[in-house]
Amino acid sequence: MGASEVGSIFVGQESALKLMTGKVLKALGREIPFEDNLSMRKGKMLETLGFDEFIRIYFDNIQVL
């Protein structure tokens, strides 16, 4: 499970069915449901924000190899 799926929460059979349906659609190159797509986008944005904040805080201590 990647960072883009951070927002996924599994609660009961309905959520599992939605997850499987989304995975199959994604594998076939079809559009995934808007609700799931929004959740993945939020997870990716939070990951990016966390990385940017880390760089901002520790910028002086980071050395390029």
TrEMBL record:
Swiss-Prot/TrEMBL keywords: Plasmid
Species annotation: Borrelia miyamotoi
Protein name, entry field: BppA
